[in-house]
Amino acid sequence: MIQSIQAKFKPTPADYVKATLAFYFTQRSILLLVAVSVVFVLLAVPYSLIQWANGSNIAIFILAIALGFLLIAAATVATPLMRVRKMVDHDETMRAETVWSIKNDRIELRNHFEKTELAWEMFDRLIDTRQYFLLVYAANKRQFTFLPKQAFSNKNESDRFVVLAHANIANRR
To answer: Which pTM value belongs to this model?
Structure first.
């Protein structure tokens, strides 16, 4: 039996935004949206400039479509991020210093507002990003909880968490 692993952090609104961005860019649909947007603009802008050089009025229409497409793509990503930041700014419980006690059978989260127990069975997968660990919920794969890597006292504790998370999540598959 592995001894309990402790992690402690005080999340900021920026943590929530960065974790959400990290989660977004692990989703195929967002990556596809970004790729299509980039390809569309890279093709549309030169084509419209060529059309304009040939005296065609369609160039402005093509540029307007490309700009509109970029605005829609940006809003698809930016709007939820602004909503997350606003929600965190207004909810003190989301910014409270939290202690994670990670055990073989569950994760306990404690702050001065509440104590929450999360069973490993609640999670579908662990995403390891540059700054955060994201635990994706099994019931809704668009929801996650995050744990900053800096919340651990040392790299060994962080590594033990990854081993424990993979063992508990992989055993159910």
So the answer is: 0.80
